[in-house]
Amino acid sequence: MLAAFFGLFYVAWITMSALQIYPLGGERTDIFSFPATIALYCTGFYALTAWHRAARAVAAVATVVMLAMGLMLAPTATYFDVEGDSDIVRELQARARDNDAIVLYPSAGFIVGYYGPWPVAIERTDLMMQGYDVSLRRPASLTLPRNTLERVAPVLESFLQRGSLQRVFYVAARQQSDVIPESFIISA
User: Fold this and answer.
1) Which residues of 131-149 are buried (b: 16+ CB within 10 A; e: fewer)?
2) 15 pLDDT exceeds 80?
3) Which of 88, 92, 149, 183 is most enclosed, with most CB atoms within 10 A?
4) CA-CA distance, 59 to 115, in Å (whole number)?
5) DSSP 8-state secondary structure symbol assigned to residue 183
6) pLDDT-derived band of residue 79, with 50, 70 and 90 as boundaries?
7) Helix (H/G/I), strand (E/B), else coil: 146
8) pTM over 0.70
9) How many whole angstroms separate alpha carbon 168 and alpha carbon 145?
10) Rounded to whole angstroms, how far apart are CA atoms 57 and 30?
11) d(C-alpha 153, C-alpha 179), whole Å
12) Stretch 79-107: mean pLDDT
């Protein structure tokens, strides 16, 4: 019964990937299947050997070895250094007033959306591995478009030409220098 449950996990996982609901093939998303893989292997191995008493002992030992290997040699996914992300957002929250602009580097939408008090929008995109992106839904906010400076420059210039903006806060996280060059950042 347990093996059937874990088997259905993979059927659902592959189906959701085929329907483009859940991305398959990225280390940060695939890592969530590893516990089910270990459990499916262990229950399947046990089910194959349950017919004989000696085989059950071998299966029990193999299951313990598999679980130990899974725990000791667990694959990892690359996560960005998130040290200080919440501090950046708290500082932004303390300083930014309603008539101030908040300009977000593309990936900063995730941290500001998670740690900040402002409403967010989750939008479908093919530019992100997980298939969605996060942006602020605050009147004087702009999440810069992904890709190149050619796309960023006109959007940013149009946004900054609003006459009612008092100050502009630029929030960058996990920044790639080729998207917004240093000369484009105004610091006070």
Assistant:
1) eebbbbebebbbbbbeeee
2) yes
3) 92
4) 47
5) G
6) low
7) coil
8) no
9) 17
10) 32
11) 10
12) 81
